[in-house]
Design a protein that fits this description.
With about 150 residues, this protein is mainly α. Helix content is about 55%, strand content about 5%. The protein has 6 helices and 2 strands. The chain has helices at about 20-50, 60-85, 90, 105-120, 125-130, 140-145, and strands at about 95-100, 145-150. It has a two-stranded antiparallel ribbon with strand order 1-2. The longest helix is centred in the N-terminal third of the chain and has 29 residues, at about 20-50. Mean pLDDT is about 90; it is low at about 1-10.
């Protein structure tokens, strides 16, 4: 296995307990302050680079600013999922994301999961809440990216 060295839980797909939706939501709630702090740091850096001028002073600076914030948000999850198999919130709640075969995520898996998570969260989080009724407790983005969330301890 390459990457973080994290192996599949409990010897692979069989025998894993589905992660309750409540733990997943609490992990997401824990991630919010971390992401918010990184976005504030990105805003401060943008203001510094822009010499304190309003970021909406012209279309280019506003577009670059918005793209930067999206990049920070994406990097938080992509790096966490690829490197450690978890975000900070997932670590706090002893969760890890892995491929359905138990392997660590590849970059392509992480990107697909992130893109699919937009589909799961944007329509009133219906795709995330759907995990409550899924027999394997997998949300839309888990299914679309062939990943799952497992307990680490």
């Amino acid at each position: 296995m390459t990457g973080s060295g994290v192996t599949g839980g409990a010897g692979g797909p069989e025998g894993l307990q589905p992660v309750p939706l409540s733990r997943r939501l609490l992990a997401a709630l824990y991630d919010a302050p971390a992401v918010f702090t990184l976005l504030l740091a990105g805003t401060a850096l943008s203001l510094l680079v822009n010499r304190g001028a309003r970021l909406d002073a012209n279309a280019l600076s506003l577009s670059l600013y918005r793209a930067g914030l999206i990049g920070i948000w994406a990097a938080y999850y992509l790096i966490g999922w690829k490197r450690w198999g978890q975000s900070l919130g997932m670590r706090a709640w002893k969760l890890r994301v892995e491929r359905t075969d138990g392997a660590s995520l590849r970059w392509s898996d992480a990107f697909l999961r992130l893109a699919a998570s937009l589909l799961a969260w944007l329509p009133l989080a219906l795709g995330v809440i759907a995990a409550a009724w899924d027999p394997e407790r997998r949300a839309w983005h888990d299914r679309l990216s062939n990943t799952r969330v497992v307990m680490t301890g």
